Amino acid sequence: MLYLGGGIRNASDQTTVASPDTDLALDVFAAPATSVDVERLFSKAGHHITPLRHRLKAIKLGQMVTVGAWCRELWIPEGMLANYHFEKQRKEQELAKAKRARAAADTSAEGDEDAGPSKRSRLGDAAEN
């Protein structure tokens, strides 16, 4: 049996015995004295959940709260996320530009002689008849 007088010392001495009391004592004594951090976390997470954003998945909410905490604690250099977003957008624009250039090259390679009469000329021919 564990006595609260020795607390963790007695609990750690009895770990080889593997009694349920030892596990309980280690869990109780290892718990933080206050729940301020947990309450703060729930408060910050609650600000992300609104009536219009109530379908966020738990992993996405965790990511948002984590990055928000990193930004508040200044663990992320200022402007790093903006630079990342800018670079990502620039790469997407370059890929779209290359895709349009390939599409234009493909249409010009086909040639106009294979295309047949244009819709405008066909409508003009139909109006004359």
Q: In short, what is this structure?
A:
This protein is mainly α and 129 residues long. It is 67% helix and 0% strand. It folds into 3 domains: 1-31, no CATH class; 35-76; 79-129.
Biggest sheet character: none
Oligomer: single chain
The separation of the N and C termini measures 108 Å
Question: Overall mean pLDDT score?
Answer: 78
Give the H and E element order.
HHHHHH
GO molecular function, one term: protein dimerization activity
Protein name: HAT C-terminal dimerisation domain-containing protein
Organism: Tilletia caries
Domain HAT C-terminal dimerisation: 24-65
Describe this structure in words.
By secondary structure, the protein is mainly alpha-helical. The chain folds into three domains: 1-31, no CATH class; 35-76; 79-129. The protein has six helices and no strands. It has helices at residues 7-13, 20-30, 36-48, 58-72, 80-110, 119-128. The radius of gyration is 33 Å and the shape is elongated.
Spell out the blueprint of helices and strands.
Elements: H1 7-13, H2 20-30, H3 36-48, H4 58-72, H5 80-110, H6 119-128
Question: Which key features would you list for this structure?
Answer:
about 130 residues; mainly alpha; 3 domains
